[in-house]
Design a protein that fits this description.
Elements: E1 9-11, E2 13-18, E3 25-30, E4 39-44, H1 51-55, E5 62-65, E6 70-72, E7 75-81, E8 84-89, H2 91-97, E9 103-108, H3 114-125, E10 135-137
Parallel strand pairs: 1-9, 7-10
Antiparallel strand pairs: 2-3, 3-4, 4-5, 5-6, 7-8, 8-9
Length: 138
Amino acid sequence: MTEINLPYWVIRYVESGESVPGGPFTIFIAEDDNGDGRHLDLQCMPDEPSAQNVRLEMDSYCIVSEGEGVHYGGLKEVTLQPDRLVLRFLDDAVEELELPSDVVELGIAPGVDVDEIRSGLRRVLSYGNPGKIPRMNF
């Protein structure tokens, strides 16, 4: 019998871009468009990481969860399919972001712009420390 993996939650809202000109670039994915439900906010700065950011290990993309957990880097692998986004996290990111598992599968609702997710993730996850860039299967 084939095991069916149900998504942790379903992406129904996506927003990407700079909220302030010259500010961080963000890809925000959420269950709903008011931001009250489950969501992940992945961000990168417009400039290369500073020496201080490198020292503080804040030299890569940032992930913010709905529980306000924050982690820099933290993804091993990201797989995007037309109806699903699979995120494979490092153990310390799972704890910091209060995730249910190191593998989080998110469904993608019909009508959601998968190309916007793809381009936003590619831009954010390619930022900074090359050792923290996850494998991307897009």
